[in-house]
Each structure stands twice: as C-alpha cells, then as structure tokens.
Amino acid sequence: MLQFHKLFNKLIHMQYTIETIGTVCSPYKQKFGIARQPGLVPAAEICISLDKRFQADCVRGLETFDYIWVHFIFHGVLGEGWAPLVRPPRLGGKQKKGVFATRSPHRPNHLGLSLLKLERITTDSGVKLWCSGADLLDETPVIDIKPYIPFVEAKPNAAAGFIDGAPPQLDILWHEASGRQHLTEAFASLISQSIAQDPRPAYQNIPERVYVMNVGDCEVKFQIDENRALILSVLPMPV
C-alpha cells in the first residue's frame, strides 16, 4: 500500500508537455473588450489555422457539427501568476470565489475552453476553421478541438452557482461624428455587440471617462453612463 501511495504521488506531480495544434486570428488585438464568455458576441468571427502537420484528414467529418469545443492557452496573461481566490465580474468585483469556481484566465495552467459556432472549414491553403461567437485574443495558441455533442453536454436545467443567466447588455448609441456610415454592417455589429457587454472593470463607473478599445485595425473610443454606451469614434489605429 505504501508503494502504491508513492507511485500515486509521483503521478499526480508529473509535468506534461503539450504542443499547440494551431493559432487564432481574431479581431480582438487586446484583452480589453473581449466578451467574457463565448457566444455573447455572435459577430465576433475568428479563424483557427492548424499547423501544417495537420492535414484535411484530421478534420474529416467535423463539418457535420454545428459547434466545437476549442481548448486554448490564455497567452495574454502568462507570467501574471494566479491566486486561489478571484473576484468574478458578475459579482461586481466585490466578492471572492475559488479560482476553480470561476472562469478567470488567471489559473494554475492558464488553460481555457470555449464553445464556438463552426461556420465552415477550408483546406485549400492549409486547414482553417472559421468560427463565430468567439471570445479569443488574436494569436491565441490552440491545443485541442473537439465536436460539441448536445445530448451528452447540454444541461439547461443544471445549477449555475452565482451565474444567474446572461448578463444585462448596454444600450448602444453612435455619435453622429463617429464614422459609423463608413463601416460595414458586420464590423459595426462587432463593435456594438462587444461594447454592449460592458467591458469595463466591474468596480468602475466613471461616466466622463473615454475608453479605448482596439478592434481589427481600428481604435474605438466610447463612454458609458448607467446602462447606455455612446460610441464616439472609430478610426484607423495610429502607426
């Protein structure tokens, strides 16, 4: 029995090497402004480019699924460490919960999991998976992909702890000088849906403050007062 415990302790403290299988190309170039959960911003479209060693056979049959699980690394916070207690935004940043009771990116191994809508797969120039409803930073390393199976994984009546449904959204207004008329509908929707999630820190409420968010190749400036956001300008990012 003692020998078994020694072997068990050795196994649970082993280190494993995980190689990435691909990289994300996302319109979100910075952490600020990314939806806090997948699916909240349907207009957020990304492309997952698989490494060259993964050919079309690796995704054969995946096109028959509507959604996929994407396992990834929170590379934007590597080196920032983690703490056993965190302050979830859904609780206003005022209450602490155990890190494993939250989806904080500041985790022991910085691993993330997102359920994304699979729009299409292309293989003419490497294997690429095009997805929507994304909450991923540009250049996110992907470590695995699996199909979503509803009858096994959908649990609509499950208890969700301190998470009580979808978060409230802000009303969006565009300033007449914002440049909205020069944007495509898809890009304008991405900006509106992203800001509607209220990207501010949960403890922050400064109506006069101008926030800056980088989306695609543009710099977006906006203000938030109560439950309304005013988009001030959308301009090319300064070189």
Automatic annotation (TrEMBL):
Annotated GO biological process: methylation
Gene: yaeB
UniProt cross-references to SUPFAM superfamilies, sorted A to Z: YaeB-like
Domain TsaA-like: 18-157
Keywords noted in UniProt: Methyltransferase, S-adenosyl-L-methionine, Transferase
One GO MF term attached to the UniProt entry: methyltransferase activity
The protein's name in its UniProt record: Putative methyltransferase, YaeB/AF_0241 family
Classification via PROSITE patterns: TSAA_1, TSAA_2
Regions crossing the membrane: none
Lineage: Bacteria, Pseudomonadati, Pseudomonadota, Betaproteobacteria, Neisseriales
Assigned protein family: Belongs to the tRNA methyltransferase O family.
